[in-house]
Amino acid sequence: MRVIICSHEADIDGMYSASVALMKYPGAKLSFYNYGLENFTKMFDYIKNESRKSKKGLVIISDLGINDEQVSALAIDSIHYLKQRQWSVLWVDHHPWQKKSLIALRKLGTLYHDSSGRKCSTEIMYEKLIRKDKIAEQLKLIAHSSDFMIDVKNHDSRVSELIHFYRNKAGSKQRLEFLVQKASKGILWDSEMQKDYMKFIKVGELHKRKSLDTLTIRKINSFEVAFVFTFPYVQASLFANEVFSNSMVDLVMLFNKHGKVSIRRNTESISCSKIASHLVEGGGHEFASGGLLKSNPKDFSSCIREMEQAIINSLN
Ligand SMILES: [Mn+2]
Q1: CA–CA distance, 122 with 93 (Å, rounded to integer)
Q2: Which domains does the chain show, CATH number per domain?
Q3: Nearest-angstrom CA–CA distance, 96 and 16
Q4: Does pTM top 0.85 for this prediction?
Q5: Distance, CA 55 to ligand 1 centroid (Å)?
Q6: Which of the chain's termini has less CB crowding within 10 Å, N or C?
Q7: What is the pLDDT of residues 9-36, one digit of tens each?
Q8: 188 near 182, Cβ under 8 Å?
Q9: How far apart are the CA of 180 and the centre of ligand 1, in A?
């Protein structure tokens, strides 16, 4: 049977949940996607195309959530098509979904969705597919501490940085596939990754310094908020943690040249997902979220004004 695994390209959880799925279905094809209608369209086009090559198959979608009406309609339509070709769908995720989409998807395929906010996709994949496997167990522990930023001091962030490097480096998408294949065999680091990592360190440090030069701190209500324009090789979560450990801010909002915003918090009295809901295509978790700006990314002060307004709206 033809099996394809489509997972979130963003982070360790996306990669390792795909690795765990690959352990269960070693011959499966891998591909990675991000959020947004355009990306979901790409994903479903690929899946439908694969389903034309053979009747009967399985597609596993991981670590990607439906948070948008159009994406929901696209997913429902595509899965109907797949069912006609006798393909089944297994969807694993932990992002917030609209209730309507959850109900619709449950009717069409197998959906393992955790809404508790305490499990990452790799953990769900482990529990549902390959429980008790020693390698998978390690993968889910690493993904959990990376996704929820638990025990940051003892967490090895190099794989996260490397994923970020591969995502942003032209022609490096295949490296993500290698990383997932290696992890599924229990190889979490090797000389090739080390070599790539050393390349990343050089340019990554430079981009971090350049980003820090743009740091602006504003007081909004009782909260200290840092706004930073980030250069491509800066990984949002790790960088936000650095900002938190070097300053006393409560919230960090990062934005880049594409107008993409990443929101991270240092206090539980702010909801990142609420702030994101006041941005374009905003979504995510309480503790980490993102969205898009309407402002021209080159115009820092108008970007900051727009983000400030999103915070103010979320506090009301
Ligand atoms: Mn995740």
Answers
A1: 9
A2: 2-189 (3.40.50), 210-315 (3.10.310.30)
A3: 20
A4: yes
A5: 31
A6: C
A7: 989 999 999 999 999 999 999 999 988 8
A8: yes
A9: 15
